[in-house]
Design a protein that fits this description.
Residues 1-21 form the signal peptide. By secondary structure, the protein is α+β, with helices and mostly antiparallel strands. The chain contains 3 helices and 10 strands, in the order αββββββββαββα. The chain has a single domain (15-164), classed as Immunoglobulin-like, CATH 2.60.40. 19% of the residues lie in helices and 44% in strands. The protein has a 6-stranded antiparallel beta sheet, covered by helices on one side.
Length: 167
């Protein structure tokens, strides 16, 4: 009985992951289109709390974006910061982006304020994401630090599903 308990406990520890991902469908009122997104909840990370890869299907175009939530008011992405994506541990692409940062808390001096940052992905980068075997995201923050996040294989698989889904 003790062996079964230990084996079960050990199996649960091995199978648990510091993140989990899911696909969400809805309507994006900001961009006015059907939204399909992969949501990754990030555990054990002090800066990034949630990461989305979103596809918005509009009447005449399709938009792609990475949305990052962070809960640290002092270290946020700002409009003059950048994001670099490293594909397959070699190809580095730097995005100097239009960053939309929204405070999702009504308390202006609350340091636990959650921020949402949206980084638009150029259409020509989508095939690179589809072909990638790994992606590392480097978020350059306003306090001169870099938040590095290696996208888990399960989340990358969902990003690829988001690209393929039409509605």
């Amino acid at each position: 009985m003790k062996k079964i308990f230990i084996i079960t406990l050990f199996s649960l520890l091995l199978l648990t992951s510091p993140c989990y991902a899911t696909i969400i469908k809805g309507y994006d009122t900001f961009h006015e289109g059907i939204s399909i997104a992969s949501a990754v909840n990030i555990e054990n990370e002090s800066i990034l709390k949630k990461l989305y890869f979103q596809k918005t299907i509009q009447f005449d175009s399709t938009l792609y974006a990475i949305l990052a939530y962070n809960a640290n008011f002092k270290t946020i992405l700002t409009p003059d910061t950048k994001l670099t994506l490293t594909f397959n541990n070699t190809d580095v692409i730097e995005l100097t982006t239009t960053v939309v940062s929204k405070r999702l808390n009504n308390y202006p001096f609350d340091h636990s304020t959650v921020r949402l940052t949206e980084i638009l992905i150029p259409q020509e980068l989508v095939p690179t994401i589809e072909d990638a075997s790994s992606i590392c995201l480097n978020f350059y923050l306003n306090d001169q630090t870099i938040a590095v996040y290696n996208l888990p294989a399960s989340a990358l698989a969902e990003w690829k599903k988001v690209i393929l889904l039409n509605n």
